[in-house]
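User: two proteins, same treatment. go.

Assistant:
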Amino acid sequence: MFRNVAELVQQATERNIKLYEIMLEQEAELTGVSKEEITGRMLKQFQVMKQAALRGMDGVTSHSGMTGGDGKRLNEYIKKGNYLTDKTTLKAACYAVSINEVNASMGLICATPTAGSSGVLPAVLLAVGERLNMDDDTIAMYLFTAGAFGFVIANNAFISGAAGGCQAEIGSASAMAAAAAVEMAGGSPHQAAHAMAMAMKNMLGLTCDPLAGLVEVPCIKRNAAGAVNAITSAELALAGVESKVPWDEVISAMYNIGLAIPVTLRETSVAGLAATETGKKWKEMLME
């Protein structure tokens, strides 16, 4: 059993096993369910994530009419080949937007760790998995890596935007995805932890201020930003860059910042972007 990132990394390092193996063992111990059944369930959840990404790229529109079609636009942009960065990063952004657009359209998604941040983790795993030529069964195992860090974050801070701002949702999802990406690429437990910390540091203070109280604007595009942040943090960690602030202290900082964020900027939609003229117009329109 691990309670923080330091204990998680220590156990994986001392036993010379993957982080996802630690999480899988703990899940089996806590639930009494066999590892085989747990991995089977996780694979099914990954398929839900993958199907949401594919559906979003076909083009979906939210019931409010506020958002939709950006996943399709990104996919078409990638196909043209005239982009600024690289395909893996862009695919991650595309998948993230697509999945969260499916969420906004009331489609089937898997909260990772929340519905509002459901695009980040699967997007990174799908894009990195494609880059490394991994099959679905292999990719799904790294959801346990992400889950291990999510377990620590949820139990030592929060993952709810209403509780700690969007840093707790997109920030946590991005941190989880960064750690998983590092392990997918063959990085060490220490590198995965540093990636988690750097990704979370980049999201500290992010407010939760959705227009009209809907998980659409700016949530969907923030999923893309969270996915790209995760990949960048993973690359830094794999290059040997380390977080100057210890892993668990970063999580504690996120918790304290979340408590300090005004209630008006914690999903109440009365401040920030929600309070702009455009935000007010959307609220009035939808109320009518």
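Protein 2:
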Amino acid sequence: MLVAAAVCPCPPLLVPQVAAGAAPELDAARAACADAIGVLAAARPDRLVVVGSTGSAGTESYPEGTPGSFRGFGVDLAVRLGRGDGPDDGRELPASLAVAAWLLERSSGWPDVPVEGIGVGDALGTERCLDTGRDVAAGAGRVAALVMGDGSACRTLKAPGYLDERAAPFDAQIARALGAADVTALAALDPVLARELQAGGRAPWQVLAGAAEGARLGGALLYEDAPYGVGYFVAAWS
């Protein structure tokens, strides 16, 4: 059963070494992420599942100890998902899960519980996302989820996807749903519109919606902004 969830954005710029001189611009987001992960720790879960967006077509599991790095972003910084040695098949964390691993490594007081990563393809259909979430919730007596994903990338003229007038209302809908722990609203997100607005968080958020069905969690929106024209949200459910 899902007992707590933290929702965080996943831009590599969240890591100060990657952001370099622009690092202070996301200080508030980092602080909110730390607070949200603190809610997960306080829930005393038996298992933590980290869900992040990927460019793949389906889902892929990343066992505890899977390594990741930010070398692709010009920084020689390695991370690892939880503890352990990880797989010996050369698998590495996608960027969203590498950011999650970095957040967990810097959090204080995180309990020694098993951790698993799930990469969710941007094009994964709603029903498959919801089913994946239901499987996550059924995986242990007390499950916590760290859900990584960004909103639209079309909020300004300089945004990665240029300006789209549909982006701000779409992100406002996301903010309301995350702040209210509204699983119905998250499940109703339009995958086609999300793809057109380059909102990579749609699939992970719908996994969360499936995991939280019947859990009666309350939500709090801890951060909402669109630096660089991309919608970033931090929320805590418990």
